[in-house]
Amino acid sequence: HYRHQLSFKLGKGKFVLAVYEKLIRLTIPIDQENLLLLTLDNFDNIPQLVENVHKLIENLNDS
Fold first, then answer.
1. Residue 29 — φ and ψ, nearest 5°?
2. 3-state DSSP call for residue 36?
3. What is the CA radius of gyration of the chain?
4. How far is the C-alpha of 36 from the C-alpha of 11, rounded, in Å?
5. Total structural domains in the chain?
């Protein structure tokens, strides 16, 4: 995977945000093989959402 090939240079990816006319798509890595894909209507507080999802994923991975 291209993402894995660049990670040693760029660091581990945190999230990808794509803004379309009618929705927002947020992709967050859960682990090395899985991604969480969220689609949202107009949502103003993306940074807070990303932080909350990261905390949730960390808690799931710790248990």
1. -70, 135
2. strand
3. 13
4. 19
5. 1
